[in-house]
Amino acid sequence: MSATHRPEHPSAVDVLDHGTDHEQVVFCHDPASGLRAIIAIHSTALGPALGGTRFHPYASTADAVRDVLELSRGMTYKAALAGLDLGGGKAVIIGDPATDKSEALLRAYGRFVESLGGRYYTACDVGTYSADMDLVARESSHVTGRTVAHGGAGDSSVLTAYGVFQGMRAAAEHTWGGPSLAGRTVGVAGVGKVGRHLVRHLVEDGADVVVTDVHAPAVERVLAEHAGSSAGSVRAVGSTAALVAEPLDVYAPCALGHALTDDVVEVLQARIVCGAANNQLAHAGVDKLLLDRGIVYAPDYCVNAGGLVQVADELEGFSFERAQQRAAGIHDTTLTVLRTATAEGVSPAAAADRLAERRLRDVGRLRGIWLGR
């Protein structure tokens, strides 16, 4: 990296300041295709790092660095808490997927993934899809989340939503004594890939669902899918601010991260927060604010691990039934986290971290850094 750089470009010192516990951060640039990407490997103590590729028009390279470092760290904890023999990694491609995505760019990205020799496996995330992974896989053997036509698991959002639903059932059991969401009002912010499937589970369980999304067609599609439902109901509000002010029982953030700010927690009426978005806490103190208000927080990386379980299963030769059974275990994991938090007098976020760190310490020390194979 050049010693001189524009202010918005992070230096090596910047990366070390924000990612001191990361094993490796790789900047990828292919001028011919326009690829600008960052791959962050947080930990391979439990096995090769696995994490999706996010394609997003970041305002600056520094913003992309912050996001990929935070997301990759979260993947380490997610895999550890889910009981997987995998480490944590993530990649971001800087650009607008609607206009910048191309076969050449994705294949160039695949060559960078391959250059890591198996220390990082990539998959889908915001802005990328299974068909994109098929293109990446033409240059790398370290790709999962591929289409069914190419022997993959297909859309990982299916089991991500299923796992969030199981986590929500566990939070309901912990809070109200029973796992059913029937008769409860659940607010879902973001009804894209994951939120749409989550709404279906909730309606089938008899919940009344209130939705919002910045993309109006996504809202219209969900409303049309559940028009005239004989179980639960679905209606929409115009914004996330309006949604959190609703008299909800459960709030499910399912869009981008940092959804739980001080201001949101202050007005939130829900007893439970359980959603699919990564890194929901805007800062480290938000979990304490939730606790002080008596709001049960089901940690995001605990409940949204279903997608990781799905793409990890693909590495063994995918079986949807086996992956779904494993994702169903998120119910018990969430209960363990919430009960540990109560027993130890800490927030659920702290309890989840303790459980994940315990496994990283106890199992990871036997394995060391993953060298690839």
From TrEMBL:
The keyword Oxidoreductase applies. Keywords: NAD, Oxidoreductase. Residues 154-368 form the Glutamate/phenylalanine/leucine/valine/L-tryptophan dehydrogenase C-terminal domain. It comes from the Bacteria. InterPro entries: Aminoacid_DH-like_N_sf, Glu/Leu/Phe/Val/Trp_DH, Glu/Leu/Phe/Val/Trp_DH_C, Glu/Leu/Phe/Val/Trp_DH_dimer, Glu/Leu/Phe/Val_DH_AS, Glu/Phe/Leu/Val/Trp_DH_bac/arc, NAD(P)-bd_dom_sf. Signal peptide: none annotated. This is Glu/Leu/Phe/Val dehydrogenase dimerization domain-containing protein. SUPFAM superfamilies: Aminoacid dehydrogenase-like, N-terminal domain (SSF53223), NAD(P)-binding Rossmann-fold domains (SSF51735). Belongs to the Glu/Leu/Phe/Val dehydrogenases family. It comes from Nocardioides abyssi.
